[in-house]
Design brief:
There is one protein chain. By secondary structure, this protein is of the alpha/beta class. The chain contains eleven helices and seven strands. The strands form two sheets. It has a five-stranded mixed β-sheet. The chain has a two-stranded antiparallel sheet with strand order 1-2.
Length: 268
């Protein structure tokens, strides 16, 4: 029996007890024995933690976390000193466990996750893990997401792909779903009808992020997000010289942002 099956078995026993509590004909002594049995099984449950890397194979790791094992350990090396061992209730969570729970949340957006169940972590603890890991990643983001001083190497990458000279990045926006805000709720509703943040990203030819802007609500158009961003103003002020970005038809074609032809001419 694997850890997930074991967890579900314990929940079945707990549900049986709860259902019995609502049964007026249930024997009080039997209910007491069942409660003792559930307590005996569930109290030490947190001590029987599973090693996710042993439980999941390489394909499952990538499917659940969107990263391979080497990348996850790399992330752990970057932020473990900012996490430490966190005591949540009776549980002492290692940095790698906090990272795994958070990556799984980033991947599917649910707090009640498979990883949280396997690691025997409650939903409030999962929420705290996500908060702490997110803060740690934000602290180091500027060390890894930036426009390098020398843009020639980036330009060379796009030249090798499609002979596009002077291009230093591709820009686009994506909607990150959020819970309904209490203030100014209407401006966070995007064109697809749900609440979101319109997050702008710029990547180089190897799909490395050079810039990320997550300051605009979902109703903001991609073109407006770019125009109001720090990097957008820098391009407008010609701070990058003869360099260009590539964008889709949602952006206006400018001297520094190239977009596709709306009706490209056909070859005769």
């Amino acid at each position: 029996m694997n850890n997930i099956d074991e967890f579900e078995r314990h929940l079945d026993v707990l549900n049986e007890v709860l259902n019995s509590d609502n049964d007026s004909d249930a024997n009080e002594e039997d209910l007491y024995e069942k409660r003792i049995e559930v307590r005996r099984r569930m109290v030490p449950f947190y001590r029987q933690r599973a090693d996710i890397f042993d439980l999941f194979d390489d394909n499952q790791i990538y499917k659940v976390f969107r990263f391979d094992k080497a990348s996850i350990w790399y992330i752990e090396g970057l932020i473990s000193n900012k996490l430490g061992r966190k005591l949540f209730g009776k549980r002492c969570l290692l940095p790698i466990e906090q990272i795994l729970v958070s990556l799984q949340f980033y991947a599917n957006g649910t707090f009640q996750s498979t990883v949280g169940n396997v690691l025997k972590i409650s939903q409030p603890s999962v929420s705290r893990c996500v908060r702490d890991v997110s803060n740690a990643l934000c602290e180091i983001s500027s060390d890894h997401i930036f426009f390098p001083a020398n843009l020639l190497e980036i330009q060379r990458g796009f030249t090798e792909i499609a002979n596009l000279r002077g291009v230093v990045g591709s820009v686009d926006g994506t909607h990150i779903r959020i819970a309904r805000p209490h203030l100014h709720e209407e401006i966070y509703v995007n064109r697809k009808g749900y609440h979101s943040i319109n997050v702008q990203g710029i990547c180089d030819a190897q799909c490395n992020f050079l810039s990320v802007s997550a300051s605009k609500p979902g109703s903001s158009h991609d073109a407006n997000v770019f125009a109001d961003s720090v990097i957008g103003r820098a391009f407008k002020n010609n701070e990058f010289g003869q360099s260009y970005l590539l964008g889709d038809s949602g952006y206006a074609c400018t001297p520094f942002l190239l977009t596709p032809y709306s009706q490209p001419p056909r070859k005769s």
